[in-house]
Amino acid sequence: WVRWSMPAPGSRCLPSEGRCSPRPSPATTSRPGRAPRPGPPACPKPSPVSSSPAGGITVVTWNVGTAMPPNDVTSLLHLNTGKTNDADMIAIGLQEVNSKINKRLKDALFTDQWSELFMDVLSPFHFILVSTVRMQGVILLVFAKYYHLPFLQDIQTDCTRTGLGGYWGNKGGVSIRLSIFGHMVCFLNCHLPAHLEKAEQRKEDFATILHMQQFEGRAASGILDHDLVFWFGDLNFRIESLDIRFVKYAIDSNILSQLWEKDQLNIAKSTWPVLSGFQEGPLNFPPTFKFDVGTNKYDSSAKKRKPAWTDRILWKIKSPSVGLGAGGRRPSQGVLSVSQLCYCSHMEYTVSDHKPVAAIFAVQFASKADKPPVEIYVADEWSRPEQAVVRYKMAAGFHRSSWDWIGLYRVGFRHPKDYVSYVWARSDDGERYLEKQLCAQVTFSEEVLPKGKGEYILGYYSNSSSSIAGVTEPFQISLPRSEEGSSPTDSSGSSSEEEDDSTLVLLAPKSRSPSPGKMKRHRSRSPSLAKFQGLILRPSSRDRATSRSPSPQSRRGLPGDIPTIHLPQEELGRRGAKALELGQAATSQEGSSFYQTVREQGSTRRVSADTPLSRADPRNLGLLPALRLEMIDQALGRRRESGDQGYRCRRMSPTSPPGCNTSPKEGSSP
After folding, report:
1. Pairing mode, if any, of strands 138-145 and 89-95?
2. Which of 28, 104, 296, 363 is deepest in the core (most CB within 10 A)?
3. Count of C-beta atoms within a 10 Å radius of residue 81
4. Mind listing the pLDDT tens digit for each residue in 543-568?
5. Domain range for residue 389?
6. Are residues 240 and 136 located together in one domain of the fold?
């Protein structure tokens, strides 16, 4: 497979030489506050890009059987191959992830362990989580190299339940669709009904998923309207007619071709109209189901299930002769070509009764977007605070929002909300800059800049599209450390021991989300990626309508302000003088004395301010904006002033959902 031929954003491509020159660097020797008011900053003019993009896409499917994640998945993702033509995008579909009530409650506050594992493994290779969607135990994740993020637009998710007649989400499909260099691509992860005799039910469920999943906008409203569709998952197709002894003999003798003609999916591709146009590579690997857990031996239980290729990866290219698609959309001009370079199973993973399957594709796009929606210009190095000046230019037609922001990311960040610091991308003359294609300018204050040396990336986050619309190449920040210690926003060093102890209190011993030990270098600054509305990397297409299939991110977030845990005054009255004395003692303590109410057997108690749980800063634990803990004197003071008015709506950080239709104030802080 081949790398994207599009150069990294911020670089200039010289057509005559076929190479990239360093990005333009604006002069930043003077403070922006002393710059003359008239005249916007000048932007260097980037050279046009004339090459055609081609890229490698890796697709992985794995029924994990409610197991805990293994220690390493590097070989599964085909990383560290020693080649220079690694994949540029990776789609991972999981089935039967543990979705018991206790696990789902934990995953509501923190990212699930499987997603954490893949982010931790992929972030050192510059892969960023583009989007994720979960329906009970079915999860889909899409990653991409950070320099491709501005060219991945129109990201939407959807899910459809088919279990118990459509009332249960243990079976069904989840999807992520997006525009890649102007081409509409859809990833569909399915878990279809099991057992040999349920072939017709699998056909009906797949047709239901295709019919129910609809996306917003005129471009590719249905799954099959996309230019390219990847369909994968535990499809549960079995081998018909043949006896289990012959199947095992064919496997042991490596004559797998004698099993192909009896494979239900191979038969269905030629007889079911709904599968018309879907392609699949040769099944040159042993059946991936069913194994004894912890071994490479097929089922030895009393049921002795027949081995089968239940885990599959297929693709479909939209025919250019279709003409007008849904909504009057024409297929992309030219021919979209896809070549499968690898299709294999991984026998080395034994935590489940299924073996994972991976496929690597080389995709050649016929046309592309010429430049990112937002171009960012920055100096090669920030060695002084006054050099932290960022200039950016928005392309014509870009939908600017007053909630857009520019994030500062350490190289190796995991998702768009995993920033070190940020600044609001707002300007009084923003509309004029957009209309006249001029450069706007913002400045990072010294207080939010990380101290020490390190490599960082700037990214323009578009609130309207919930994606990064522009990035820079890595640049250096080398600011001297203060005598008192590192800045609170400095992520160049390890977290304090107090943070780690506080995190341990809230997490199970085997949790990977976030582990203070192994994962402290990649601790997320964003809470759960798959539960709360303000934390979802890309909203579901069902967010503004009644969902036919309750995806976790299709549930509406908490409206209005962020909820605060406090002890109501009525409770204080019932508790009597003892409770008031406890409140006064807590109020008199110096510093940030956080407290929390805990309900046990119908009674309510408060956690002491000197416990690790009460000392935990929710911003360090990744709980915002789902939970805000306030100092007791602030909470009680507001209760005394107004008992029923509630808290005024305010925007705390880019990860917080906007609770009112007001623009951020100049003095607002993270």
Report:
1. antiparallel
2. 363
3. 12
4. 443 333 333 343 334 444 444 444 44
5. 374-428+436-479
6. yes
